[in-house]
Amino acid sequence: MNAPAKTEEFAVAQVQAKIPDGVYAETVLAVEHYTDRLFRFRMTRPAGFRFRSGEFAMIGLMVGDKPVYRAYSIASPAWDEELEFFSIKVPDGPLTSHLQAIKPGDTVLMRKKPTGTLVLDALTPGKRLYMFSTGTGIAPFASLIRDPETYEKFEEVILTHTCRDVAELKYGFDLVHEINNHEFLHEIVGTKLKHYPTVTREDFKYRGRITDLIENGKLFADLGVPALDPQVDRGMICGSTAMLKDTKDLLEKAGLVEGSNNKPGEFVIERAFVG
Ligand code: A2P
């Protein structure tokens, strides 16, 4: 009679034995699928795990008997008791083909040291902070727009999010809705946060690549703000390799200088992954 239970216990022990040393093994709390390409999940946060809003961590799963990791921006803010991640689903992706199947109760691995350049400390003081994102590149900004420090440092925060179609914008719309209804964040944020969603492959109120909208001035006209000015404007960029390069070129053309953790500047880029 005891045989099945023993087998199960043995299987659990085996799985636990395989978890590599020096990494956190956390429990999935919630999973939400947006489209066949995008999903988010929330998991437990290890007691001693500290990070700055906007940083990324290496997230992984045991695939067979080997851990497979990929860089993921932490989408939840530094004060949150849980950790949130926003992910693409790559059909044959070494990690995401497995990660997209996770369910509450499953174990996700996380390496212990977070890092990254999309942090407030890497920017010199300014008045208006632009966060330029495409696709899952919105993730580090999901963290930063939920962090009160962002609004202490900037008078205006503009989050641009460009996706192929409207369904892919939902994560961003949900975020802004959450902030506006949050018990303390909505007072801190007030009217400082402007969300500028655009799509490139479907009809919508705002259309076009963010690079085109910067170049032709429509972004600024729509928002009712002046063109980019290194005296007041700061930028953060997160998206595909091509988007990072094209957006960086435009910010440099406007006179903004790239910064880093060691040498704060007028804009920063995350090069650790393609999102
Ligand atoms: P497009 O539809 O014109 O390619 P993806 O889902 O492929 O990561 O793309 C996310 C969004 O980023 C899409 O709307 C895409 O527009 C846009 N995009 C792709 N390349 C660039 C680029 N070099 N500069 C700005 N936006 C880009």
Largest sheet: 6 strands, antiparallel
Q: What structural class results from the helix and strand content? A: alpha/beta
Strand fraction equals 25-35%
Strand line-up across the major sheet: 4-3-6-1-2-5
The molecules bound to the chains, other than polymers, are: adenosine-2'-5'-diphosphate
Mean pLDDT: 93
Low-confidence segments, ≥5 residues, pLDDT <50?
A: 1-8, 10-14
Helical content band: 25-40%
Terminal CA distance reads 50 Å
| SS summary, helix count | 9
Shape: globular
- Summarize the helix and strand pattern as letters: HEEEEEHEEHHEHHEHHEHE
What is the alpha-carbon Rg in Å?
20 Å
Q: Give the tally of β-strands.
A: 11
Architecture overview:
- The chain is globular.
- The chain has 275 residues and is an alpha/beta fold.
- It has a 6-stranded antiparallel β-sheet with strand order 4-3-6-1-2-5.
- It has helices at residues 3-18, 96-99, 139-144, 148-153, 170-180, 185-189, 210-215, 218-223, 241-253, and strands at 23-33, 38-44, 56-63, 66-73, 82-88, 107-111, 128-134, 156-163, 193-199, 233-238, 267-269.
- Residues 134-135, 162-164, 200-201, 209-211, 240, 242-243, 246 line the site of adenosine-2'-5'-diphosphate (A2P).
Quick tags:
5-stranded parallel sheet; binds adenosine-2'-5'-diphosphate; single chain; 6-stranded antiparallel sheet; globular; alpha/beta; about 280 residues
